[in-house]
Amino acid sequence: MILEDLKKGNNYPTQDEFLFKSSDHIRYQNGQNVSGHNYGCNRAVQIEKNISGKEGYSVTIFNLDGNHPVWKNNVQMGTKPMKITSTTDEKIVLRGFGYDERGLAMGAGEAASFAHYGLSVFLKYGAIDKITLHMHDRNVDIEYLK
After folding, report:
1. Neighbours of 137 (CB within 10 A)
2. Which residues on neighbouring strands pair with residue 8, listed in sequence order?
3. How far apart are CA 4 and CA 112, in angstroms?
4. 3-state DSSP call for residue 102?
5. What is the pTM of this model?
């Protein structure tokens, strides 16, 4: 299971993917809870081997409550490449790396940095208890709970 590679701090995972399903999340801005619990909001955090075959992982977040009315898929956060930056028995921290060159192609003027994103995987008794998405450039965290 990819969780074993994460626990070991292995940025070259041997397994394919892991899916953490959440039915509740809390949004924090500047460290303050701004949403309360969002019970019944079903999301999935997918952590898989880097889909480009390079070092690290690919992280994608899905909305499990149905397809988006405009783009017809259930992707909540598009895939971001991330590497493990630290591990303890209780927490694994990943940080985005590289740039999204599509911003240049779409006329945005610059490539967006994936380093603006991070993920903390919290462990309890060796199993994933919760996952927090960090949007560092906005000082926003979204905590996904079981």
Report:
1. 11
2. none
3. 31
4. helix
5. 0.89
